[in-house]
Amino acid sequence: MAPTAAPLIVPALTKHTATVIWAHGLGDSGLGWLPIAENFRRRARFSECAFVFPNAPNIPVTVNFGMEMPGWYDITTFGDLAQAHDQPGILKSRDYFNSLIKAEIEKGIPSSRIVLGGFSQGGAISLFTGISCPDRLAGIFGLSSYLLLHDKIRDYVKSDGPNKNTPIFMGHGDVDPMVRYEWGLDTSKILKEMGWTVDFRTYKGLEHSADPKEIDDLEKYLDERLPPLS
Asked: Domain Phospholipase/carboxylesterase/thioesterase: where (predicted)?
């Protein structure tokens, strides 16, 4: 699965020592989350960090009557976490995100200085890719997200995998009508049962969107996971 456009990249302001790969949700593009990095830049935050905003390919989406839109995998139903997932599409996107991680490593950035995360569908693929990644990451985050292939997740995650000690940040609005709050809670519970440390934050009154407090909390998480080296 090759995305329709190359990722948008916000380079580090100083020596490049870390990277955040930030995945958008269904129907969006990397441009949709670019203002986050621009805000960090205006405040001289994460100056050693590059931000990579990938663009999903246009694919037919079943819940939208087969119409094409940017997506990391098909969504066949808005049922619940136990409903059928587009396993081939999920695995192709996982491989693509692993290739982005490899590209950063080839630039000289240690995997332990790379954070992978995203919003909604982008957060879901980031959680799945992150916990199954063969390289040890600095952090994994999912905003308004859920666990993909959760009934098969142990087939893809080794019990002694390199990211078992990688802290995970999750944020979710308690009135999200699209990716239900309960799905986020259940995802956090499953991950904790599998041994992960998950910081799950609830945002009162937030629907399927991001919240300034949530972004502030995520910024603190990134601060902890990617401290400046110089």
From this structure: 7-223
Say whether 151 is catalytic: no
Residue 208 DSSP code: S
Quote the pLDDT of residue 80: 67
Burial state string for 117-156 with b = 16 or more CB within 10 A and e = fewer than 16? bbbbbbbbbbbbbbbbbeeebbbbbbbbbbbbbbeebeeb
Q: Which two tokens stand for residue 81?
A: 């976490």
Rounded to 5°, the CA angle 44-45-51 comes to: 110
Per-residue pLDDT at 158: 84
Q: Please list, in sequence order, all residues whose beta carbon lies within 8 angstroms of the beta carbon of residue 44, skipping any fewer than 6 positions away.
A: 13
pLDDT of residue 2: 47
Q: Which of 111, 120, 132, 188 is catalytic?
A: 120
Is 132 an annotated catalytic residue?
A: no
- Annotated active-site residue in 150, 186, 208, 209: 208
Chain position carrying tokens 């819940």: 63
First-residue to last-residue Cα distance in the chain:
38
Residue 208 catalytic? yes
The DSSP secondary-structure symbol of 32 reads: G
The catalytic residue among 126, 176, 188, 211 is 176
Residue appearing with tokens 């569908």: 121
10-residue stretch averages of pLDDT, the chain, 230 residues long: 78 97 97 96 96 97 92 86 81 97 98 98 97 97 94 88 96 96 95 96 96 97 96
Residue that has been written with the tokens 């079943």 in this structure: 62
